[in-house]
Specification:
The structure holds three protein chains of three kinds. By secondary structure, chain A is an all-alpha fold. In chain A, about 70% of the residues lie in helices and about 0% in strands. The radius of gyration of chain A is 25 Å and the shape is flat. Chain B contains seven helices and no strands. The radius of gyration of chain C is 21 Å and the shape is globular. Chain C starts with a helix and ends in a 20-residue tail after the last helix. Classes of the chains: A mainly alpha, B mainly alpha, C mainly alpha. The interface between B and C is medium-sized, with 26 and 27 residues.
Chain lengths: ~120, ~200, ~350
């Protein structure tokens, strides 16, 4: 049973190995000549201004929480989709109600302007 | 050692390493990445139980969605690679209390597992097909339709709450006074790296 | 010899090596192909100097990248900075494990193959974001944040588009879906309109997840220097580059398995494997064509397109597919269960 995962595991291992070989190969062969200028964060030739630790816009957070909600919802639909042919009419009605409710949530976000990226 | 045990050991190691690095890491981002490793470990434990569906869900929802949310919240507060370790809050006493409480709780958990009679609890083998699509879907859509529909209410409340938090109509803060820095950035020369050697075409000022 | 090959360990190893080698080779030469293709589209000749028709260009590129200095910027998070590039390759290749290349050429025929592909696709955002954050560079961080925002937003239409074949075929196993298509016709036409729209949605959302033009916001070089790869040099940059092309190749294979009938061909002209490879390469080429034809979206246009049009559209498509199953031609049909894996041999 678990043997079915073996080729999958090998693909993972080989992919990681290729990544590691290329990575260490580059480190071995490439020259090492660090200078203070070279180690600075690259900002098109200017001296770096401030740090990278900026506080990000709240819109990223909003996108993430919307994603969590819709992701959970779609994951709920998957077992339904696989079983749909045996669930019949009630299954269709159940999912119609579920999706209608989520469309309402989406419409609410739209109305509140949560879907506008620039504002 | 058969394939199942090997998978279990890999999963358990991933869980432990991830959990430890979540707790120990100084940088919140590294802690979040530790959480990611833990979740992948849990997914491989599900695989070991042949619950492929649960393993995939574990990765999609917890690794793919919840950790992303954590990361974004950390970025909202502001995290920086160059920031040093945070100042340790709390005294030695509070640490001892917290550590001791943790130890007592873990001991209690172990005692419960051992059931006081020295015999460890043995869990029965998982039923065939537990945690696969038919089992989960059958439970959701045949026996638990009403809780399932109520879950939408929970999701809608989550959306409303998030919008309320993110889009609250706070009074706009007064614009910061124009600093020397911004003047230099927008009006003055940009101080290129080799400012000592100006381009010959540049008009001398 | 035969008994030795049917040892699952050896079989798995051989299979893994063959799949990864084939994918890497195709990827390396697809870079040559893309440069040639782009050159021709812009009335240039593309690479010509290294080898006949410039065919050895990928090797020359790799050698050049190997010789470059490896720079880790000051104040970068060294561990995460170095871990990110190999991880991108891992997650980009991971989904290839459940792609059926032929009736028996499947690395792992998971019951939840579709979900596994989506899970791997969802994980790709992490190494990219880690790279952006660990670089300690504003532009890299901004590129990483945009990349995650884009990746997670487009994952929702992607997951919805992948739901349509699951609803139509009643199975989450990729090989079952292909087998269903062999019986009832490719989904792109056998479920009219619905199948075609779902294919378009899947293709579009996959492009966005693989950060291909017109969705390559994470490395919008006109505004973010080079996005997350700004601070990466030499082979580490090469790994990101490779991962992007590998990911594109794998999503082409997934799209052809889910919507274009997989290894099913016309009239048994050639073995199934050839058809699958042909379809994958055609889709792969179409992605290059799109890349050199279209312009990049703006970040806000991208998010608007996703949340206002693709997400509601995807939900509607799922219900349309369910209606098609309920009242349409697929009523009462189920995918034939996979034949019992009688023997495992790398054929």
């Amino acid at each position: 049973m678990l043997e079915t995962y073996l080729p999958m595991l090998f693909i993972f291992v080989i992919a990681l190995t290729i990544g590691a070989v290329m990575f260490f190969g580059g480190q071995l062969i490439g020259p090492k000549n660090p200078t203070p200028e070279k180690m600075m964060p690259f900002e098109c030739g200017n001296d770096s201004q401030g740090t990278a630790g900026v506080r990000l816009n709240v819109k990223f957070y909003l996108t993430a929480i919307l994603f969590v909600v819709f992701d959970i919802e779609v994951v709920f639909i998957y077992p339904w989709a696989a079983l749909f042919k045996s669930l019949g009419w009630t299954g269709f009605a159940t999912m119609l109600a579920f999706i209608a409710a989520l469309l309402i949530a989406l419409a609410y976000c739209w109305k509140k302007g949560a879907l506008e990226w620039e504002s | 050692m058969n394939a199942g045990n090997a998978l279990f050991i890999v999963g358990a190691l991933l869980c432990l390493v991830g959990a430890l690095s979540t707790v120990i890491a100084r940088s919140p981002i590294r802690a979040a990445m530790g959480l990611l490793i833990t979740i992948i470990g849990i997914a491989s434990l599900f695989l070991k139980l042949s619950a492929q569906f649960l393993a995939a869900i574990q990765i999609i929802v917890y690794a793919g969605a919840v950790v992303v949310l954590f990361v974004f919240v950390i970025m909202l507060i502001g995290a920086d690679t160059s920031a040093g370790p945070p100042k340790s809050g709390g005294s030695v006493g509070s640490r001892i209390v917290a550590g001791g409480g943790m130890a007592v709780l873990s001991g209690l958990g172990l005692l419960l597992l051992a059931r006081f009679d020295g015999q460890p609890v043995r869990f029965g083998p998982a039923a065939v097909g537990h945690g696969d699509v038919e089992a989960v879907g059958g439970l959701l859509f045949r026996e638990a339709i009403i809780p399932f529909e109520l879950a939408t209410a929970l999701l809608i409340v989550a959306v409303i709450g998030a919008i309320a938090v993110a889009r609250s109509k706070a009074r706009p803060r007064p614009a910061p006074p124009e600093s020397h820095e911004s003047k230099r950035l927008f009006h003055g020369p940009l101080h290129p790296r080799d400012a000592q050697r100006p381009l010959s075409k540049e008009p001398a000022e | 010899m035969d008994a030795w090959l049917s040892n699952p360990f050896v079989h798995g190893l051989v299979y893994g090596v063959v799949v990864v080698t084939a994918l890497m080779t195709v990827t390396a030469w697809s870079i040559w192909f893309e440069r040639k293709f782009a050159g021709r589209m812009q009335s240039r000749t593309g690479p010509t100097l290294v080898g006949p028709y410039g065919l050895l260009q990928p090797l020359a590129d790799a050698l050049k990248l190997l010789q470059k200095e490896d720079i880790v910027p000051k104040d970068a998070d060294r561990v995460l900075f170095n871990v990110a590039p190999p991880l991108t390759v891992l997650f980009a290749l991971g989904a290839a494990a459940v792609v059926p290349w032929g009736p028996e050429q499947i690395a792992a025929d998971l019951d939840v193959g579709v979900l596994f592909i989506l899970a791997m696709g969802g994980m790709v955002v992490f190494p990219v974001w880690i790279a952006g954050w660990a670089s300690n560079n504003k532009y890299a961080l901004l590129g990483g944040m945009r990349s995650v925002a884009q990746g997670i937003s487009y994952e929702i239409p992607l997951v919805m588009a992948a739901l349509v074949p699951v609803v139509l075929c009643g199975s989450m196993s990729v090989s079952d879906i292909v087998r269903f298509q062999l019986e009832h016709g490719w989904l792109i036409y056998s479920a009219p309109v619905v199948g075609f729209l779902a294919f378009l949605l899947f293709f579009l959302a996959s492009l966005a997840e693989a950060n291909r033009i017109p969705f390559d916001i994470p490395e919008a070089e006109s505004e973010l220097v080079a996005g997350v790869t700004t601070e990466y040099t030499g082979m580490k940059f090469g790994l990101f580059y490779l991962a992007e092309y590998l990911h594109t190749l794998v999503i082409s294979a997934v799209a052809s398995a889910l919507f274009l009938g997989g290894w099913g061909g016309i009239g048994g002209l050639a073995p199934g494997l050839h058809w699958m490879v042909l379809k994958t390469l055609l889709l792969f080429g179409a992605i290059f064509w799109i890349r050199w034809t279209l312009l990049r979206f703006r970040a806000d246009q991208l998010m608007t397109l996703c949340w206002k049009y693709l997400v509601p559209g995807g939900l509607a498509l799922v219900m349309a597919a369910a209606a098609w199953v309920h009242w349409g031609a697929f009523a009462g049909t189920t995918a034939t269960p996979a034949p019992a894996p009688a023997e495992q041999g790398a054929r």
